[in-house]
Amino acid sequence: GTQEWAAGHGKVILLGEHAVVYGRHAIAAPLPLAIRARVEDARDGTTLLIPRWGIEQRLQQPARPGSFLQSLTLLLERLGLSQRALHIQVAPEMPRAMGLGGSAALAVAVIRALDRHCALGLDDASVCALAFECEKIAHGTPSGVDNTVATHGQALLYRRGEPATIRPLALKQPLPLVIGLSGSESLTARMVARVRQAWLQHPARYERIFDEIDVLTRHALDALEAHDLGELGELMNICQGQLNALQVSSPEIEELVQLAREHGALGAKLTGGGGGGAVIALCPDNGARVARAMRDAGYQALEVCFG
Ligand code: MEV
């Protein structure tokens, strides 16, 4: 079974995406969905196989810039495994490029599988640091939140820095969320680059938006502490407005957010990089109704518990 496979967790960001790239806080938690990987010795050459995503690739130079193959090449180099012939098999439980931390989860799963197979003795900090290198290849200027959640598999408050501030969060009760999938790829790298461009042109203007998101995130911590879901939903709704100000929303995201609010969600916003990808809706009572409304409109929806 896939139980003995190495795992990296997918994640949702409750609040703080994008602002977290600029040193503000983010609240994130692992998803019950993971990416699993297994490594075996091969006869000749290294191959990467991800049947569920239709990927079957032979490691050859040069890999497409930004691709996981490029990350894999770097990993094998860093781990001193470039000369080995390895068969790397990946079984994802989640859709790719949906803003659910798939790239970080993939990196963590493969690093752990390499560690196991080749008995490298990596600790979590090294796994996380290597996955961060892969995230730089995939995203340019990541904050490190995705690889941190993918590695530790735990709800946390995250702030980047040297070293990053990581505060584990113990939620009183798990949060019932509906995840709506927009069906178009999350353009995290492109969205992060767009926000950077805008920030470079008008730093003061964008710093104010990041500060505003940070205030919402810190109020959300208080709301989580008090398990005040009404307040938390309100903060999520306002945060969606700020993300819209950053221009990382999309028509599908707006439709999903609207559907969720109309069908009884306490709050709804995009999660992750945006430009497509996923929406989260806080639904203590009407989860099934919200999920159905999303499906009726042609989207995929998952009901999950956060934390
Ligand atoms: C992506 O899941 C979250 C972003 O804030 C990028 C990052 O933190 O690296 C958009």
Features:
binds (R)-mevalonate, 2 domains, alpha+beta, globular, seven-stranded mixed β-sheet, 307 residues, 11 strands, Ribosomal Protein S5, domain 2, Alpha-Beta Plaits
Secondary structure layout plus pairing:
Elements: E1 6-15, E2 26-41, E3 47-50, E4 55-58, H1 68-78, E5 86-92, H2 102-118, H3 124-139, H4 145-152, E6 156-159, E7 165-168, E8 175-181, H5 188-201, H6 203-225, H7 229-245, H8 251-262, E9 267-271, E10 278-282, H9 287-296, E11 300-306
Parallel strand pairs: 3-5
Antiparallel strand pairs: 1-2, 2-5, 2-6, 3-4, 6-7, 8-10, 8-11, 9-10
Helix pairs in contact: 1-2, 1-3, 2-3, 2-4, 3-4, 5-6, 6-7, 8-9
The structure holds (R)-mevalonate.
Walk me through the structure.
The longest helix is centred in the C-terminal third of the chain and has 23 residues, at 203-225. Strands 1, 2, 3, 4, 5, 6 and 7 form a seven-stranded mixed sheet that branches. Strands 9-10-8-11 form a four-stranded antiparallel sheet. β6 (156-159) and β7 form a beta hairpin. It is α+β, with helices and mostly antiparallel strands and 307 residues long. The chain folds into two domains: 2-168, 2-Layer Sandwich (Ribosomal Protein S5, domain 2), CATH 3.30.230.10; 175-306, Alpha-Beta Plaits (2-Layer Sandwich). The chain contains nine helices and eleven strands. It binds (R)-mevalonate. Residues 13, 17-18, 20-21, 101, 139, 142-143, 145-146, 188, 192, 272-273 line the site of (R)-mevalonate.
